[in-house]
């Protein structure tokens, strides 16, 4: 009899192990505070990694929703830069059939969009921080899909570099081409903008954060600096790039403002919290006011952040900047 019970106990233990593994490694947090008898609204917010820019989007969405719907059940899911984990989280979110799903960034957005189509789900999907939604097959639907996108101004990047650092003639673009399809389009647009000021751009492909220092260090001496896009893989490894640029007296330029706080001497972009705030407002209007989803909205709010401490370490001589086409110049 004991021999017969052994396999059953092993099976139960395996089930428990799998349950706890899924539960504790999805990095999913329920921030609901339901003290009302009204029907509770459930919203999933999916983020690909931990980074200040992505965290700001999440906080913006969370604040908008909780202000208007205090009893909402909000599931925060973060994949910590792991694609397999993100896939599992996306499957869980879509299968749960919540009242809405908000995604941050291209990868999470594309995966959710694909699974919603496969399951023929009617869950409304609101995406944020996706650069070229139409090219990715993200077509507006007033019942199912909308989002907040931004319009990068690479001409501004090129002109300000030419003004502040005319000695820059070549830059190393560190990026992950497999991160999302839009990065290739972004790199081409950036290349064209820099070429207008006779600045050459040389791509360096990396596929995981751990490769950044190993691949970049041997090449850095041949270029005037490093430039990065809104690439979750690279942005997550920004500390390594900052260290290299300061070690070799090279300039680091980023296209998200939070990397400016971490040591990029110049960073361009939007205040990330706006994306989340707008996405949260859309969810609230849909759930409380029963409004159809609005068309995809572009946030054309561009800022430049200058890190003065990094400027000294990366040998950038600061000059006055014209605020043409810029919302603001942020000095830190």
Textual characterization of the structure:
- The protein has two domains: 28-151 and 272-299, Rossmann fold; 154-270 and 302-331, Response regulator (Rossmann fold).
- Helices cover 42% and strands 19% of the residues.
- It is built from twelve helices and 14 strands.
- A seven-stranded mixed sheet has the order 1-3-2-4-5-6-12, sandwiched between helices. Strands 8-7-9-10-11-13-14 form a seven-stranded mixed sheet, sandwiched between helices.
- Helix 3 (83-95) packs across helix 4 and helix 5 (154-164) packs across helix 6 (182-195).
Order of H and E elements: HEEHEHEHEEHEHEHEHHEHEHEEHE
Q: Roughly how many Å is the radius of gyration?
A: 22 Å
Number of strands: 14
* CATH class descriptor of the largest domain: Alpha Beta
**Helix content percent band:** 40-55%
Q: Describe the main β-sheet briefly.
A: 7 strands, mixed
Ends apart, CA distance between termini: 72 Å
Question: What's this entry about, in short?
Answer:
It contains 12 helices and 14 strands. The chain is α/β, with parallel strands linked by helices and 332 residues long. It has 2 domains: 28-151 and 272-299, Rossmann fold (3-Layer(aba) Sandwich); 154-270 and 302-331, Rossmann fold, CATH 3.40.50.2300.
